[in-house]
Specification:
The complex is a heterodimer.
Chain A: H1 10-13, H2 33-36, H3 54-65, H4 88-94, H5 97-100, H6 112-129, E1 133-135, H7 141-158, E2 165-169, H8 175-182, E3 186-190, H9 200-206, E4 211-217, H10 229-238, E5 242-246, E6 266-268, H11 271-274, E7 289-291, E8 303-307, E9 310-314, H12 331-367, E10 383-386, H13 388-394, H14 398-407, E11 414-415, E12 424-427, H15 435-449, H16 453-457, H17 470-475
Parallel strand pairs in A: 2-3, 2-4, 4-5, 5-6
Antiparallel strand pairs in A: 1-7, 6-7, 8-9, 10-12, 11-12
Chain B: H1 8-18, H2 48-60, E1 69-70, H3 83-89, H4 92-95, H5 107-124, E2 128-129, H6 136-151, E3 156-160, H7 165-174, E4 181-185, H8 194-200, E5 205-212, H9 222-231, E6 235-240, H10 251-254, E7 258-262, E8 278-282, E9 295-299, E10 305-309, H11 316-319, H12 332-370, E11 374-376, E12 385-390, H13 392-395, H14 400-409, E13 412-413, E14 416-417, E15 428-432, H15 439-454
Helix pairs in contact in B: 3-12, 5-12, 6-7, 8-9, 12-15
Classes of the chains: A alpha/beta, B alpha/beta.
């Protein structure tokens, strides 16, 4: 079935004079604009936006949507992104006027429901983290990281203990060093061992009284839990530093172990991953942070507090780092996360991690004879395979495998990350996928490995387009349509 | 309750294939001393109908703008959202997709974001726009970092006191551990006086950040500020209200170098402050310095037109600590909503919305002035938001905060007490009026205001 009607660019299907949304003339007596504004500020014509009828717009975007893979249509084992099912009940809830149509500057007296929810969410996130103080303000994981590092910087400045370095394992996500630099620190790389865990000897060499923070992802980006974590956090604490946990992989440890219990002092959540806010083709996210009590005074302002008169936003925070975001954060994502956690409860949340780990190990067991998995035969919620040998022996790269999967209706794994594994294919099935989905995927995956290099180099064959020329896109960027 | 598919017997079969005795055995890498051997102390579980009731109760403890007549703005506005924006953005092919790294499987979102970038350029008169940032306040901080990178100037950043305080705070938080000093130019007249601004600018200044209309609602002298900034090699960062561009000149036409905006008003619900939508656009020559995701048009191997994420070498995935920004996600779903909204409005719909806001706001302002209870503060041209100072006869009885609280009982969100944000404005209230308000609502508002203010 062809779904290309009205999918030309909005600007190409535009026709002069077409209208969709109309705003009735105001019912107040009109005053000529020229008398309200100095002439030089008024535009002669409104912006040259496209002109379309309502059906043009509806058909355009409906048909465009069919050109996407999405969780609701396809298995999406994209490592580190936790592409689990997004429950439909959440969407109905957030659309209630009592959540969707409330003003962020309305007095607290008319916002008691949302404040109660956000206060409850702060408590829940503190309990899951094992860290008592929470800021819900950061809008995404990377903003959470930056916020926590700014909190650390403010803490050390307050103690007059001037520390300049943030230590980061080489397997970490690229946002870690970028956030460290933005918070004014020097990022220092710590090596991983052959088995993918932190090289404790290298860490010992690099820890000293300049160390402000050690950032660790645990389970790490290879899907391995670093059992040295208690020794690592002791080493950092003995040197006067703080330990930051990148919570990207919380889906593996909910109710199993808590970052605060294994020595982390600060962490961020990715509510859109772990607690299933829909990913929206690249956001919105929500990246709240949880910290130890001695860091609480430095959290962004405001925080939600409970008083004798109900719930309130507390702006009276003299040591706070200030704001990283307008208003109170990505509330809609937090409402979904709260609904999710309430649905599951404590046992259900632990079951999420148990089943995420079971599914990942099952997929690993189905695939490990077909493709190299360099860092062990067990994993937590995800694992990283390598197409290194395939590339050498058959000229099949990790990217070729991805493109082959697309032809079979599967979203590919995360590719070429982490950087410490050559030709990496990072797979995270999540807990919501069924046994037979994993089996079918494994079967297809193996069949692709048996295809000829020639066929795979030209994949995908069955989508609307073949591989785009990314080099040309970057060399001569065409970022907007021009008439 | 959980969303797990596999039954117990299936789980058992899976464990056999894995060669593990139990699910518990899969967690053996976690030392026993670190295990949590109790249930988390959190609420739940709730079946769907119970959850719906619990969440419904929470929602009913909030008073929405469907219930209170909204004259409150301050960066979040009660604009009308056409039904098609909801219907189309709720296509789960859009909202359950991830970042379009695999271009072949993401042409729908990629094309929509490319259209979004183009629409934002058409709106602002700039050359390049990114595929969105978190929100207006964080976009201001990103714009400042970008200006430092473009100019190579690390000495200071100059901001108008009339810039939204959330933006001012985000800038100072993000810059806290970096080089530049932030100089805030006082605006006692309710706008940034270009002569005063000029005194603050020097050859170490990376940018001047100004909001138009400003936090009090009034228009700034943008063209003159641009001229003063450029004379000293300083970039003008203009924070704008996208709806105002239905009637006001585009920032590109008065010389802005970087344009940022809170895009909430473009089809996105109030939602207690987020998710919102940070807009950013700039001049062509800064394209390799703009933070966030960019979508580009290219061709596939058969020469067919298509879209990809591009210029990713700027991003932290590759540049790591040398990246210009740590931004990873954008606000994809809300950028999509804005694109649909602008496509539905078109030039005439945007103009009508802007005119309707303007006419309503001026009607209400005139009516309030005629009541003799307030005066305009400052008395300058404004768009849809304005600030009034309570006359002494009112101010001696009530603070703006008390008036707001008492107006709630009359069924109104009456505005924002300006003194929370700006010194010397303790007797002021900032009021916003969108195209949704009717003459009847405004007439009754003024009656209620008179009652509340005088009794």
């Amino acid at each position: 079935m062809d779904k290309n009607q009205s999918t030309g660019l909005l600007f190409e299907i535009s026709r002069p004079g077409r209208r969709a949304h109309r705003v009735g003339a105001p019912d107040v007596p009109e005053i000529p604009l020229e008398t309200l504004f100095p002439g030089e500020v008024l535009a002669e014509t409104p912006p040259a936006l496209p002109e379309l009828a309502e059906l043009d717009v509806v058909r355009h975007f409906t048909n465009l949507s069919s050109k996407n893979m999405a969780i609701d249509c396809n298995f999406y084992p994209l490592g580190s992104c936790t592409m689990k099912y997004n429950p439909k009940r959440h969407e109905r809830i957030v659309a209630l006027p009592g959540f969707g149509a409330i003003h962020p500057l309305a007095p607290d007296s008319v916002s008691q429901g949302i404040l109660e929810l956000l206060y409850g969410m702060q408590k829940i996130l503190a309990e899951i983290a094992g860290l008592p103080a929470v800021s819900i303000q950061p809008a995404a994981g990377a903003q959470g990281e930056l916020t926590a590092l700014l909190v650390a910087a403010a803490y050390f400045r307050h103690k007059k203990d001037y520390r300049t370095r943030v230590l980061i394992p080489d397997s970490a996500h690229g946002t870690n060093p970028a956030s460290a630099a933005l918070a004014g620190f020097e990022a220092v790389t710590v090596k991983s061992r052959a088995d993918g865990l932190v090289d404790f000897e290298d860490l010992k060499l690099k820890v000293d009284n300049r160390t402000a923070v050690f950032m660790i992802t645990n389970p790490n980006t290879l899907g391995l839990f670093d059992g040295q974590i208690a020794e690592i956090t002791k080493l950092i604490h003995d040197a006067g530093g703080l330990v930051y946990l990148d919570g990207a992989n919380m889906n593996a440890i909910l109710g199993i172990t808590r970052p605060g219990d294994f020595g982390a002092d600060m962490m961020h959540y990715n509510v859109h991953k772990t607690f299933t806010g829909p990913h929206g083709a690249g956001g919105p996210g929500s990246g709240p942070i949880a910290v130890r009590d001695f860091l609480e005074p430095f959290l962004p302002s405001p925080v939600v507090v409970k008083t004798n008169n109900g719930y309130a936003l507390d702006f009276d925070r003299s040591l706070s780092i200030g704001r990283v975001h307008g208003f109170q954060g990505n509330i809609g994502v937090l409402v979904r996360g709260y609904a999710y956690i309430l649905t599951l409860g404590p046992k259900g949340l632990r079951e999420v991690s148990e089943q995420a780990v079971l599914n990942a190990n099952y997929l690993l067991a189905l695939l490990k004879d077909a493709i190299e998995v360099p860092k062990g035969d067990r994993c937590m919620h995800e694992f990283v395979a390598s197409a290194r040998l395939l590339r050498r022996e058959k000229r099949i790269s990790a990217m070729d495998i991805c493109k082959g999967l697309l032809d079979h209706g599967y979203h590919p794994p995360t590719v070429y990350f982490p950087l410490v594994v050559p030709e990496a294919l990072m797979m995270e099935p999540t807990e919501t996928e069924s046994k037979e989905t994993l089996e079918e995927y494994a079967k297809v995956f193996k069949a692709i490995l048996a295809e000829s290099a020639e066929t795979l180099h030209h994949a995908p064959h069955t989508l609307g387009i073949s591989r785009p020329d990314e080099v040309a896109a970057a060399k001569t960027p065409v970022l907007i349509w021009k008439n | 309750m959980s969303y797990v598919a596999n039954t117990e017997s299936e789980q058992k079969a899976m464990l056999e294939t894995i060669g593990a005795a139990s699910v518990e055995a899969l967690f053996s890498p976690i030392p026993e001393s670190l295990r949590l051997r109790r249930d988390l102390a959190i609420p739940g579980p709730f079946a769907e109908q119970d959850l719906t009731r619990v969440m419904g109760r929470i929602a009913s403890n909030n008073r929405s703008v469907d219930d209170l007549v909204c004259f409150l703005g301050g960066g979040a506005y009660d604009h009308f959202i056409p039904a098609a924006v909801d219907t189309l953005s709720m296509r789960s092919e859009f909202y359950t997709a991830y970042t379009p790294y695999q271009a072949e499987a993401s042409q729908g979102s990629l094309q929509a974001f490319y259209e979004f970038q183009t629409l934002i350029c058409q709106l602002t008169g700039m050359d390049v726009a990114n595929a969105s940032l978190y929100d207006g306040a964080s976009a201001a901080a990103e714009a400042v970092l970008m200006a430092m990178s473009v100019t190579g100037r690390q000495g200071k950043i100059v901001v108008a006191e009339t810039l939204h305080p959330h933006a001012r705070q985000a800038i100072s938080t993000v810059l806290a551990n970096l080089g530049p000093r932030i100089e805030t130019v006082p605006c006692p007249g309710g706008f940034l006086n270009p002569t005063e601004a000029n005194l603050a600018l020097d050859d170490t200044t990376a940018c001047l950040v100004v909001q138009n209309p400003n936090v009090l609602g009034g228009l700034e002298e943008m063209a003159e500020l641009a001229q003063k900034a450029h004379a000293k090699g300083v970039l003008l960062v203009a924070s704008v209200d996208p709806i105002s561009l239905g009637i006001l000149k585009k920032p590109g036409d008065y010389g802005a170098d970087i344009v940022i905006a809170e895009g909430q008003g473009l089809g996105n619900p109030l939602a207690y402050g987020g998710p919102y939508l940070g807009l950013m656009a700039c001049r062509e020559e800064f394209v390799r310095k703009i933070p966030g995701r960019l979508i580009g048009q290219t061709v596939d191997r058969n020469g067919k037109k298509c879209f990809v994420l591009t210029l990713q070498t700027r991003e932290q995935h590759i540049r790591r600590e040398k990246a210009t920004s740590n931004i990873c996600t954008n606000q994809g779903l809300y950028a999509l909503r804005a694109a649909i909204h602008l496509a539905l409005l078109g030039p005439q719909g945007l103009k009508e919305t802007a005119i309707s806001c303007t006419q309503n706001a001026h009607y209400l302002a005139n009516k309030l002035l005629a009541s003799g209870l307030v005066q305009l503060e400052p008395d300058r041209a404004f768009f849809k938001e304005f600030t009034v100072k309570l006359e002494a006869s009112v101010a001696c009885k009530w603070t703006p905060r008390e008036i707001v609280d008492r107006m709630l009982k009359e069924g109104y969100l009456a505005g924002y007490p300006t003194g929370n944000w700006l010194v010397g404005k303790g007797d002021c209230l900032t009021i916003a009026v969108t195209e949704k308000r009717t003459k009847g609502e405004m007439d009754q508002f003024v009656e209620a205001f008179a009652r509340v203010a005088t009794h």
